[in-house]
Design brief:
This protein is α/β, with parallel strands linked by helices. The protein has three domains: 152 residues, 3-Layer(aba) Sandwich (Rossmann fold), CATH 3.40.50.720; 162 residues, Dihydrodipicolinate Reductase, domain 2 (2-Layer Sandwich), CATH 3.30.360.10; 82 residues, Alpha-Beta Plaits, CATH 3.30.70.260. The model has no long low-confidence stretch (mean pLDDT 96). The chain is built from 14 helices and 17 strands. It is elongated and about 85 Å long. Helices cover 37% and strands 26% of the residues. α4 runs parallel beside α5 and α7 crosses α8. The strands form two sheets. Strands 7, 8, 9, 10, 11, 12, 13, 14, 15, 16 and 17 form an eleven-stranded mixed β-sheet that branches. It has a six-stranded parallel β-sheet with strand order 3-2-1-4-5-6, sandwiched between helices. The structure holds NADPH dihydro-nicotinamide-adenine-dinucleotide phosphate, the ligand N[C@@H](CC=O)C(=O)O and sodium ion. The site of NADPH dihydro-nicotinamide-adenine-dinucleotide phosphate has 27 residues, from α1.
């Protein structure tokens, strides 16, 4: 049995997990693919760095081209991250007939179509299951499990770092900055955690899911993004009073042939399965016209969960090699992309306003809502002893994003509304 040779690019959190699983589960892997899987070279930035795993030092290289140009290597497993030079390295690896497994959502969200086209041209596989919701097999599920259906909604907690932070803020009243440091120490966060907390990581993942789910090339620029850095302990406490949890949700929706994709902190009604997804766990809710509601749950980041998906992709590549069918995946995006306008995007909203505490203010606010045809579901004025002015918590029925923008513009000009403290989309 000729071994399948793998060039591993990256030996950080995920790369270390890949080595552990390939070595620790070798017998089971061989049983499935009838060949040993051997990691023959490993790319790192610094060969001298101390590692949490023992590897043959002779396999380490700091030169990516040593892997790309090695004719013995069949598959490149890319778990180093990055976009610019990583893309060039991946394209050259494909040019030389190497299959690719990657966990890199940045790369696949920005350059997925180009990389997949090159793979097709060269008869190579490119698999990227770990790029979205680390340990949940959601990409394969959307491509294969839902191939017979028409998906109408994909809604997910797809960033483990922010879910970890929001859970600790909600359950323990913890401070944002402290919990972020914990998530970094646990290996959940990106090398620049701004992309986690500002929603960009989730937006990249939603770009990938929407492209697959709606079978049209969605790009990152199509995603409306807001992160969690403005979420306050006060918002979370008011959410609890109204029966909600605050979650960073990616929401991709399709109506007729028009789609919208967004990422934002969202108030999710307790009782909706997404509201109870806590810590580093991710969940992706998928609604299909025929199947109805489904949900997929599991760890979204971390060494072994993410490496499980990477090595499963590696097994898929080797099985295809045995069958001689690499690069034969059907195209996932054959539809024309049509984006919804703000008039077509509808949701319920939660607003927290700081207003003047005097007669007639509520009337002025109600008039603004009425002018833009926004129907109010409830209004609450919590007691704020000793505070100047009053707080108003308003929830609306489903309204268009365009109408809500007009309402917010009108509030900004109203002297009785001193601050628009928070605006949240509401789900569930
Ligand atoms: N961490 C997680 O839970 C998840 C991560 N991902 C994705 O997986 C990828 C890897 O993430 P993670 O393991 O956390 O990252 P780490 O920062 O822990 O590891 C990156 C590894 O790649 C090496 N590396 C980085 N840049 C270069 C370079 N230019 N040349 C040579 N080697 C390089 C580093 O070398 P050295 O060790 O010498 O510094 C390190 O071994 C990213 O794309 C990330 O988005 C996806 C899902 C979950
Ligand atoms: N930083 C990411 C890692 C997995 O993709 C996250 O927190 O989800
Ligand atoms: Na996945």
């Amino acid at each position: 049995m000729k071994p399948v040779k793998v060039g591993l690019m990256g030996l950080g959190t995920v790369g270390t997990g890949v080595v552990r699983i390939v070595e620790g589960h070798q017998e089971d892997l061989q049983g499935q693919v009838a060949s040993p899987i051997v990691i023959s070279k490993i790319l790192v930035k610094d060969r001298a760095k101390a590692r949490s795993i023992s590897v043959d030092h002779g396999k380490l290289t700091e030169d990516p081209w040593e892997i790309v140009r090695d004719p013995e290597i069949d598959v490149v497993v890319e778990v180093m991250g990055g976009i610019g030079s990583t893309k060039e390295i991946m394209l050259e690896a494909l040019e030389r007939g190497k299959h690719i497994v990657t966990a890199n959502k940045d790369l696949m969200a920005m350059h997925g179509p180009e990389i997949l086209a090159k793979a097709k041209e060269k008869g190579c596989d490119v698999f990227y299951e770990a790029s979205v919701a680390g340990g949940i097999p959601i990409i394969r599920t959307l491509i294969e499990g839902f191939s017979s259906d028409r998906i109408t909604k994909i809604m997910g907690i797809v960033n483990g770092t922010t879910n970890y932070i929001l859970t600790k803020m909600s359950q323990e009243g913890a401070a944002y900055a402290d919990v972020l440091k914990e998530a970094q120490a646990l290996g959940y966060a990106e090398s620049d955690p701004t992309s986690d907390v500002e929603g960009l990581d989730a937006a990249r993942k939603m770009t990938i899911l929407a492209t697959i789910g709606f079978r049209a090339n969605v790009s990152l620029e199509d995603v409306d993004v807001k992160g969690i850095s403005s979420v306050t302990q006060e918002d979370i406490q008011y959410a609890h009073q109204l029966g909600y949890e605050v979650k960073l949700l990616g929401i991709a929706e399709r109506q007729d042939d028009f789609i919208s994709v967004s990422v934002q902190p969202t108030m999710v009604k307790r009782g909706h399965p997404i509201a109870s997804v806590n810590g580093v766990f991710n969940a992706v809710y998928v609604h299909g016209e025929a199947v109805g509601e489904t949900m997929f749950y599991g760890p979204g980041a971390g060494e072994l969960p993410t490496a499980t998906s990477v090595v499963a992709d590696l097994v898929a590549v080797v099985k295809n090699m045995k069958l001689g069918v690499n690069g034969r995946q059907a195209s996932v995006s054959y539809k024309e992309k049509k984006l919804k306008t703000d008039e077509q995007i509808a949701s319920k909203y939660f607003l927290l306003l700081h207003v003047e505490d005097r007669a007639g203010v509520l009337m002025q606010i109600a008039q603004v809502f009425s002018q833009y045809d926004v129907s109010i579901e409830s209004v609450m004025q919590p007691a704020t002893p000793g505070q100047k002015g009053a707080e108003l918590i308003i929830s609306t029925h489903a309204v268009s994003k365009a109408s809500m923008n007009e309402v917010l513009k009108a509030f900004a000009e109203l002297s009785s509304v001193q601050t628009i403290k928070s605006v949240y989309r509401v789900e569930g």
